[in-house]
């Protein structure tokens, strides 16, 4: 009985990951992360995702703060965006990384309107990748639970 | 040539200010059977090696240079370029100035593909420059540098 449930969940997981690749939400770097997970480090991907989300939320809060200042400190802004771009790239969050590139560009040009737009994109892309990754994690856990019951 | 040098464990010191990247590099290195120490800054790296930030090395006047080196057992340093305070490039320069540690291969990682930066690092003694995100295939490229450094060590020991 569980065989079928496990197979169905694995199909769901495969389809979710594939759709994320197709939509550019994830890129090949995510595959690299999955390849680093094995029986000796069974929670590696989940741990990295968790670290990433905490970090991203912290940075997004700071970016919001700096952008709403009377006199925007562009160098601070750039430093934070650089960090977010780096960690997005490290986990394979492709569209989020691109959104960071756009904000860096707008910040360099001192174009406040562009900055606001780019920041909104960052926030949007972050929530998209986070919610999909959360579903992925839940699927993983469910699969592991069922497999352990075998 | 000969020997079961493959079986010998190499100790890598990894330096990165990003928490996520530290986790990644640690996993990449351990997957490749390296022993790993990870620190979050250039100054922590120097501290680990027993070097000061300034020109003067922290050493007992009586201790043997080579003994220090072997006791610590760091065979390679891999560092991010962009770090607050001491950059990876600053760390590279500091290591190359050190009589104890200048022969340890240093590898620089960066998310930015800037040719002038890459050339400067390589010219000033970095063995490799890796673009982030670092892959398992990049880490596999490190082993030859370590083997070479080890066989050089053995050559000098014979004299």
At a glance:
Chain A: It holds the Pfam family Hpt. Chain A is 83% helix and 0% strand.
Tell me what the structure shows:
The complex is a heterodimer of chains A (150) and B (159). With 150 residues, chain A is mainly α. Chain A has a single domain, classed as HPT domain (Four Helix Bundle (Hemerythrin (Met), subunit A), Up-down Bundle), CATH 1.20.120. Chain A is 83% helix and 0% strand. Chain A has six helices and no strands. Chain A has helices at 2-22, 28-35, 44-67, 74-91, 94-108, 112-149. The mean pLDDT of chain A is 95. In chain B, α2 (42-49) packs parallel to α4. Chain B has a five-stranded parallel β-sheet with strand order 2-1-3-4-5, with helices on both faces. Chain B has 159 residues and is an alpha/beta fold. Chain B contains seven helices and five strands; from the N terminus they run βαβααβαβαβαα. At the A-B interface, α2, α3 and α4 of A face α1 of B.
What keywords describe this structure?
heterodimer, A: 150 residues, mainly alpha, Four Helix Bundle (Hemerythrin (Met), subunit A), 6 helices, B: 159 residues, alpha/beta, 5-stranded parallel beta sheet, 7 helices, HPT_dom_sf (chain A)
Layout of strands and helices, then pairs:
The complex is a heterodimer of chains A (150) and B (159).
Chain A: H1 2-22, H2 28-35, H3 44-67, H4 74-91, H5 94-108, H6 112-149
Chain B: E1 11-15, H1 19-31, E2 35-39, H2 42-49, H3 65-72, E3 76-80, H4 88-97, E4 106-110, H5 115-123, E5 128-131, H6 136-140, H7 142-157
Parallel strand pairs in B: 1-2, 1-3, 3-4, 4-5
Helix pairs in contact in B: 2-4
Rg for CA atoms of chain B: 15 Å
* Major sheet details of chain B: 5 strands, parallel
Instruction: Count the domains of chain A.
Output: 1
Q: Tell me which protein chains meet in the greatest interface and how many residues each side has.
A: A-B, 21 and 15 residues
Helix content of chain B: 40-55%
The average pLDDT value of chain A, as a whole number, equals 95
Shape of chain A: elongated
Helix percentage range of chain A: over 70%
Average pLDDT value of chain B?
A: 85
Low-confidence stretches of chain B: 58-70
Low-confidence stretches of chain A: none
Q: Structural class per helix/strand content of chain A?
A: mainly alpha
Structural class of chain B: alpha/beta
What is the tally of helical segments of chain A? Answer: 6
Proportion of beta-strand residues of chain A? under 5%
